[in-house]
C-alpha cells in the first residue's frame, strides 16, 4: 500500500507517524511544499517576538529524523500540482530540481491548511505568519534601528499574536480589524477586555477599520489614518486551501472547506483530508470551519486509524480556543451568544468574575467567565473566559463537562481539586453552577447588561448594593445606593417599582435580590454586576465611536 | 423555625449563609467554640510560613459582618455540650461568661470537623494546625534566634504543609511519618517524587517512623534518632469529632464519622451533619472519610437547601485532592492502585510523563501522570499527578471526565484548549487517552515497573531504545541498548525471547513495541518508561531501607 500525505505539518504528520506505528509495511510518502516539515507552527509568532530564542526549537523533526524513526519518505519543496482520482495518481513538482514527477497511490491524505485572504500592497512587503519561511522573511524585515513600524491586518488569533510579538520586539505596531471587536469567538463584553490589554501594552488597535488603498508605500485606512509601515503581516481570515481538492472533483462543504465524514474521508473514498483546510462536523452536525492545531493533529490520527482498518471516528468539534494576549488569557468554546442570536436559538447567559484562587493567598487574579445555557434542558452550549491565571483550566473543565453531558447546574457538584494556590473551596466552576442553578430554579431572576436600558425605560429602579467607596469609583447612572449590609433596615427607601439590584460582580446582588424578593419586592439581579455592565457598555461605545468616525 | 449551626467555619458557615438566602425569616444561630468564625483554615499553614503576611487576611468574616449581611446570630467561644433530640434542645457553654444556656431548636446542623490523634509529649508544647488559635500559638513558639527546631508528626496534607512552612520560616524541621510514604492518596512511585522535593528543600523526612517516647523534652524516634524540638506540630490523622453526635445517639458510619444520607441528614431527621466529621458516600456507595474543604462547603450548602425544602442531594465523593509541596504540585482523585489492590478489584494502569505545555515554549515542566482504569468497561477509576505547572488542571479535567462518564480511551477525543503556553496540540490528557486506547485495543501491551523482575526471571530480554547519552545517565541493569532510530536495522541482535522495550517516558517504547510486534517479535512496552521504573525502584528501596534500620 502506498499512501501519499500532502502537507507535512500538524495533521499530515500526525497521520503519517500514526500510520507507520499501525502499519510497518506501508509505503508512506510525505510531500511538503515549503522547506520544512513538522515545525511548530503555533510557536512561529513567539520566535518573531523573541520569547522562543532559537530558531532550531521550531523545527521538531527533519526529513532525515522522520526517515530513521518512522521510515517516512519525506520530500520537502515538493508541490502536488494535481490529483487524478481515476488513475490514482498525483502530479508533483520537485522545486529543488524542477522535475515533474508522477506518483501512483492507493490512498491520499490531504493536509494543506488554510491561507489568509490575499492582500496586495504596492511598495510594502506583505507576509503571512504561517510557515518558517514567513518567519524568516518577517525577521529579516524588522526595523532594528528603532525606526519604522509594522501593520498587522486581521484581529483573529494569529493577528493578535503577531501584534503582541512585534511590540515585544520593540516595533511600533498598528493592528487593524474589520469587525467591531477582535477575536470573533468572544462576545463583545469579553473581547473589550482583550482590546484594553492590547492598547495598554502599546498596540495601536483600530477596530471596524479596513485598508482602503495603498499607494507608493502609504496605507490609507478607512478611518482616515495614513501609515507608512515597514512591513504588513497579513492575518486576515483563514481560507481553506482547496485548489487541489476542487480540481480533483472533491466535494466542498458549506463554508468552502473540503467536505469529510467523521472518519476524515472525502467524497472520494481513497482520499482523506484533515486540518484547517477541512470542514469539521459541528455540535449540531453542521459544517463548520475550526482552524485549530489540536483538531488537525487529532483528525490526522483518525485518518491513519481508518486507513489502517480501524473503526475510529471524530467527535463533533466544540471549537475550544485559547490565546495569550500579553498578561491575559482569552479562551472560549462552543456557541457564543452572538452565534446563538444569529441562529435564533433560545439560550440563557451567566456572567461571573471569580478569583483564580483563594483571595487570601497571594497571586489570585480575577477573571471574567461567561456561560451559555440551553433553557430547555440546562445543557452547556458554550463558554468564554478572559483573565489571568486559571483561565485555561476553567475552559478545559467546561469543555469536558459539555462533552460529558454535565448540565450547567451540575457544575455546582463537580469535585475539583482545591488548595488555596489552585482554586477556591467553591471553585469558579462550582460558582457558575450555583448561579446557573439559581437562575434555572427561579431562585434569583437575572437581567443582562444589555437589557437594563429597556427595563429602566419601563420604570424599573436600579439599586446599587455596593459600598459607598465602590460606588464613588463608578456606578450605573441613576442608581439608588443602599449597601447590602444596610438593605434590611432601609427597605422603605425603595420606590414602589420593579427593582434591579447590582453589586460589583453579581454575588452580593444575588443575596440582595433574595432578601428583597422575600420581603415582597419584585427584584432581579444584574448578571455579572457592574463589571459586566461596564465592559458591555465600553464595547458598545467603542463600536459606536468607530461607526461615527467612518 | 430556629436552626442551630454548631461549628462556624467551612461547612457550617456555608449552611448558615445559604439558608439565609433561601429563608429570610428563619432564626439562625451559629455556635463556634473558638474565638473566630469563617476563617481561612486552608490558609493557616501559609500564615505560619509567612506567605500570607497579614493575619487579618485569614479572617474572612466577623460575627458582626455576618450579622449585618445575613442576619446570623453568631456566638463565638460557645461550646455545644449536649444535644437532646427528644426535647430538641442544645446545652451550650458560653466560655466568655461561664454561663450555661439551653437553646430549643427545630433543626441542628453539626459541622464539628476532625481532630488529630492525641499526642502527649511531656516538656514540649504540642499544637495542631487547625484553628487561628493554633496558628497564634505556633507563631509565638517559633524560634526567632535561629536556635531550636520543630518536629511535625504525620505526613498527610497538613503535615506536609506544616513542614514546608516551618522550613520557609527558617526553622530546621523534622517530619516523621508512620507509613512508608507521605500523602497516602498517592501510590509509592508518585509519593517518592514529593519526598524528594521535601528533602531537596531541607525537610528532614523520616518515613516508616514513629515517636517511641518523650522524656524531659527529648523525643526518641523508632529509628533511634533523638531530637529536642522547640515545638511539635501534631498532624497525625484526622479523627472525626463525634462526641456530641454519639452522646445524642446519632448513628456513626463504618469509619467512625457521623453517618448521613445524600442530603446530609443524620439518623435523627432534624439533625444534619457536614464536613470532616462526617462519612461521605464514596464512588461505590460505601462510607468514606474525605476531609476536604471543598466537600465541606458544598455539603453545607446541600444541607441548607434540604432544610429549606429543596430536593438537593450530594454526588458520590471522588476524593479529589491537591497540595503544593515547595515547587511541586501533587494531586489525586478516586481510587489509588494500592486501594484497588486491597479491594481485590481488577484494574489497568497507565503512566505518562508529559510536558505541561509545548516543549519548544519556555517554561514547560514535566509531570508524572497515572491513570487507573476499569478493564471491564474502560471507565476511569482514579488518577494521580505530580509535577509543576498544569498538574491541577489535568486532575480537574480527569475529575470531570470521570464524573461525566468519559472512558479512559475517550480522553483521546477531548477537545481541550491549546496554545503553546497552555498545553500541547495533543494535550497530556489526550495522550493518556491514546495510551489507554492502545492498551485496551491490544495495539501495544504494556508491563508495569513492578512486574519487570518476574518477567526477567522468566527469560524476557529488556531492550533500551533510548540514545547512548540517555543510557549512560542511568539504565535498567542487564538491558540491551539499541536506539529506536537504529532498531529496524538491528533486529538480528535481539535474542530469541520475549522482549520488554523501554525509553525515558514510554513514547518511543510504544513506537518500538509496534515496530517489533509487526516484525514478529513478542514485545511489550515498559509503562511510563525509565522514569516510572526508577521512581518505583526508589520507593521500594526507601521502604526497604527504613525497615532495615528499625
From TrEMBL, chains A, B:
<feature type="domain" description="Rhodanese">
    <location>
        <begin position="456"/>
        <end position="541"/>
    </location>
</feature>
<keyword id="KW-0560">Oxidoreductase</keyword>
<dbReference type="InterPro" id="IPR016156">
    <property type="entry name" value="FAD/NAD-linked_Rdtase_dimer_sf"/>
</dbReference>
<dbReference type="InterPro" id="IPR036188">
    <property type="entry name" value="FAD/NAD-bd_sf"/>
</dbReference>
<dbReference type="InterPro" id="IPR036873">
    <property type="entry name" value="Rhodanese-like_dom_sf"/>
</dbReference>
<dbReference type="InterPro" id="IPR001763">
    <property type="entry name" value="Rhodanese-like_dom"/>
</dbReference>
<dbReference type="InterPro" id="IPR004099">
    <property type="entry name" value="Pyr_nucl-diS_OxRdtase_dimer"/>
</dbReference>
<protein>
    <submittedName>
        <fullName>FAD-dependent oxidoreductase</fullName>
    </submittedName>
</protein>
<dbReference type="Pfam" id="PF00581">
    <property type="entry name" value="Rhodanese"/>
</dbReference>
<dbReference type="Pfam" id="PF02852">
    <property type="entry name" value="Pyr_redox_dim"/>
</dbReference>
<keyword id="KW-0676">Redox-active center</keyword>
<dbReference type="Pfam" id="PF07992">
    <property type="entry name" value="Pyr_redox_2"/>
</dbReference>
<dbReference type="InterPro" id="IPR023753">
    <property type="entry name" value="FAD/NAD-binding_dom"/>
</dbReference>
<comment type="similarity">
    <text>Belongs to the class-III pyridine nucleotide-disulfide oxidoreductase family.</text>
</comment>
<keyword id="KW-0285">Flavoprotein</keyword>
<keyword id="KW-0274">FAD</keyword>
<dbReference type="InterPro" id="IPR050260">
    <property type="entry name" value="FAD-bd_OxRdtase"/>
</dbReference>
